[in-house]
Every structure is written in C-alpha cells, then in structure tokens.
Design brief:
The protein has helices at 55-61, 101-114, 123-136, and strands spanning 4-14, 20-30, 36-41, 49-54, 71-75, 83-90, 93-100. It is an alpha+beta fold. The protein has one domain (4-136): Roll (Transcriptional Co-activator pc4, Chain A).
Amino acid sequence: MTDTVQAEVIMSFVVSEELAFRIPVELDFASADPYAVRLTFDLPGDAPVTWAFGRELLLDGLSRPSGEGDVRIEPASPEHLSDVHISLQVGAERALFRVSAAPLVAFLDRTDRLVPLGKEEVCDTLEAVLDRILTEAPAG
C-alpha cells in the first residue's frame, strides 16, 4: 500500500499585472515516488492537467529562484517570502501562478514526515522487481 499526502491549495493564475483568476489546485505526494510532487489543475470545461516535478525544487523555490526549463519556482518578492510564483512552460506558452507559501510549507512538512528528505528509498521496490526478474529468467 502506498502512503500519500494530498492537499488542495488556492492559486492565482496570473494573466497580467491587472488580471488573475483564483483556482483550486491539488497537491499530491506518494511514498512510492518520493522524489516527485504533482500539481493537478482541474478547471471547469477542461480535462485535468497534472504537472510532476521534484519535491526538492518546490522546497528550494520557497526561499530562492529554482528550476530550469519547464518548471520554475521562486519567491514572489525578494523582500517577502510569503508568496511564491510557480511558472510552467510548454514550448512558447507559459502559465504563471501565485500562491501563499504557508500551505506549501505545511504540505512539504507532511511529506517530510512520511518520507524524510534525503531518506528516499525507491530502490527497495526496484531491487525486489529486479531480483524477481533475474530469478525467473531462463538460464542461457
């Protein structure tokens, strides 16, 4: 059985400096994949969209600009660490979200209690699968 941590947070989808929409976003973490965090956006009229990225990236992005490529996370303001920007990019399209850091910290704290950072061990299940394959493989 996989242990999970889930939380719903409200993020602002930033269209421009003057326009933002508040949307619910589901955060997911599973002990079976302890390096990843998933964000699922379930917008009315659209199929849910899930982004997966490193749990450590989310943690680092709370206090300093982090990430390269498709996912970037950073404090919304260098002076105040109360809000975080999450930027998601596909090709030339980019979406910017603003979220309070507090629910992210609470979520990360819960994931750390389930699987402490630095103590991730996905190799146990991988080792068991490899052992089974190797013992079942025909000699030859």
